[in-house]
Design goal:
It is a peripheral membrane protein. The protein contains eight helices and 20 strands. It is of the alpha+beta class. Helix 2 runs parallel beside helix 4. The structure holds adenosine-5'-triphosphate (ATP).
Length: about 350
């Protein structure tokens, strides 16, 4: 089975105010490229689901907002005319129907004959390696199996885009990781356009070709997982995507000056600047070799490597990593060299 080729989706000036006055989205623009997996990431209530439902056709945007599929305006089209597949956290399957009938359901609605829809549904179930479950009832399946069936059902109609709303949230951690890998492989193989909502940063980094980080109904940053991870646009994105070190200072003549020393940087002068970097973007070395010097505060041996807490003047605290065989004594001075490709100035 192959999906119809994925659509490029354009969201143009789409805001959403609900009947009770809740402003779920401020007008925003977004382009989803044909065939890519775009992840919407952000804390609860930031508007991810609302944006997904606008793309699906389950909600209409406020006046002025438009949704286009391959350049064609679909704003006025309801979900059944947009040819999208949807997968929800709560599987939304028919519990007393068989697996194969659930998967064939969308084809039935589209008027495909019984023999053909069963054959197509069987093909999708085979592709997802759950062909042996075809005749089971939904209430006889585990959570992971149900989510595979929900995914099969969404793909069976050969949609132009698949829209997934926290599909793994209800599953336990080990299964979540396993199914995440399967979904990733499947979406890549089908080269289908996918928009995937999650509040889990690990899921976003693993699945996304690009990630849209959202905050308060607006887009905080759009970038590849590496860009969002290593070059967060601001403190909010940095915090949301995981541990980040911060140094405050100023940029002058290609040098960022902070209390602990100097870091060469690209870009214009800024009287007030903050440098963000991950533990793994820093390398420890003897003090004379580095522009930045800190005091070792705490060393945790972790087997493959050591996690080191460093202290600077003014209460600055830095988390760094070091090879397992590096000798580091609390109280000693140590230099820090930052990988220029993995630092961000905000
Ligand atoms: N039908 C509705 N009527 C009124 N307010 C709504 C409605 N649906 C969502 N909201 C509100 O809009 C805002 C955005 O909700 P949305 O579901 O898009 O967030 P989310 O980022 O998907 O959050 P979560 O991860 O918790 O699902 C929230 O404040 C929510 O309470």
């Amino acid at each position: 089975m192959t999906a119809a080729s994925g659509a490029a989706i354009t969201v143009s000036g789409c805001g959403k105010t609900f009947a009770d006055g809740t402003r779920a989205l401020t007008p925003l623009d977004l382009k989803v490229r044909a065939g890519e997996t775009l992840v919407l990431l952000g804390p609860s209530g930031c508007g991810k689901t609302t944006l997904l439902r606008l793309i699906a056709g389950l909600e209409t945007p406020d006046a002025g907002g438009r949704i286009l599929f391959d350049g064609v305006d679909v704003t006025a089209l309801p979900i059944e005319k947009r040819n999208v597949g949807m997968v929800f956290q709560s599987y939304a399957l028919f519990p007393n129907m068989s697996v194969v009938d659930n998967v064939a359901y969308g084809l039935r609605v589209r008027g495909v004959g019984p023999a053909e829809r069963r054959a197509q549904a069987a093909g999708v179930l085979e592709m997802m390696r759950i062909g042996q479950l075809s005749e089971r009832r939904i209430d006889q399946l585990s959570g992971g199996q149900r989510q595979r069936v929900a995914l099969a059902r969404a793909l069976a109609v050969r949609p132009r885009a698949i829209l997934l709303d926290e599909p793994l949230t209800a599953l336990d951690a080990a299964l979540r990781e396993h199914l995440r890998g399967e979904i990733d492989a499947l979406l890549r193989r089908l080269a289908i356009t996918a928009v995937y909502v999650t509040h889990d940063q690990a899921e976003a980094l693993a699945l996304g070709d690009r990630i849209v980080v959202m905050r308060n109904g607006a887009i905080a940053q759009v970038g590849t997982p590496r860009e969002v991870y290593f070059q967060p646009a601001d403190d909010f994105v940095a915090d949301f995507v995981g541990i980040t070190n911060r140094l405050d200072g100023a940029v002058k003549g290609g040098r960022f000056a902070t209390e602990a020393g100097i870091v060469p940087v690209a870009g214009p002068d800024r009287p007030v600047a903050r440098l963000l970097f991950r533990p793994e973007a820093a390398r420890l070395c003897p003090p004379p070799e580095a522009g930045l010097v800190f005091e070792v505060r705490q060393v945790e041996f972790q087997g493959a490597r050591q996690r080191v807490i460093l202290a600077g003047t003014g209460g600055v605290r830095i988390v760094a990593e070091a090879p397992a065989d590096m000798l580091l004594a609390p109280g000693a001075a140590v230099g820090l060299i930052l990988d220029p490709a993995r630092i961000a100035l905000v």
